[in-house]
Design goal:
With about 80 residues, this protein is of the alpha+beta class. The chain starts with a helix and ends in a 12-residue tail after the last helix. Strands 1-2-3 form a 3-stranded antiparallel β-sheet.
Length: about 80
């Protein structure tokens, strides 16, 4: 019986250890800012788990956000009145 309890504890510890990668989660904030105001952060390309450092100026970040917003929220077209 003690062996079974010990195995259950070991299995729980292994599962908990595998569930955490130690890097936290959610959106990553800029990790460093250079003299010209560019923010650098680690990003993982789609399909890869290898992070690489990407540096962007504030203007580039704003432009990327606007382009992403356009892709997610398409412009609404007003319906044309009937008979026109």
């Amino acid at each position: 019986m003690k062996i079974m309890a010990s195995l259950c504890c070991v299995a729980a510890l292994v599962t908990a250890g595998c569930a955490s990668n130690g890097q936290g989660g959610g959106a990553q904030e800029p990790q460093s800012v250079s003299d010209d105001g560019a923010g650098c952060r680690l990003e993982r390309p789609t399909g890869s788990n290898i992070a690489r450092e990407v540096c962007r100026s504030p203007d580039e970040v704003q432009r990327d956000r606007e382009e992403a917003r356009k892709l997610v929220i398409p412009p609404r077209v007003a319906p044309t009145p009937a008979g026109v």
